[in-house]
Design a protein that fits this description.
This protein is mostly helical and 95 residues long. The chain has 4 helices and 3 strands, in the order βααββαα. The chain has a 3-stranded antiparallel β-sheet. A hairpin with a 6-residue loop joins strand 2 (42-43) and strand 3. The radius of gyration is 22 Å and the shape is elongated.
């Protein structure tokens, strides 16, 4: 693959090298993602090469963006304090 923009010309399945180039990581890192089942892939033949379906890779990337967005929101939050949870009133244990 020469450019990330050429992804649509690669066809349905990507090699681990193509996947690594798109993700800007090493082939070993992609293989670890595949082996850990974090990135679904198929192995062609018995002991053959791994292939990642292009739409699966796109879904994986979208999921990582969503995970990053949620983590950012979580880190920005200031854990709700008592007045926020009680509409501004301070609640006592006997209430």
């Amino acid at each position: 693959m020469t450019e990330a923009g050429d992804a649509s010309t690669l066809g349905r399945f990507l090699t681990l090298a193509d996947t690594a180039e798109i993700l800007n990581v090493t082939v070993a890192e992609v293989l670890e993602l595949v082996r850990s089942s974090e990135l679904p892939a198929i192995q062609v033949g018995a002991g053959g090469p791994w292939r990642v379906e292009r739409v699966v890779l796109e879904s994986y990337i979208e999921a990582r963006y969503e995970e990053s967005r949620r983590l950012g929101l979580w880190l920005q939050s200031d854990f709700s304090n008592i007045p926020e949870l009680s509409a501004g009133r301070v609640l006592r244990a006997d209430e």
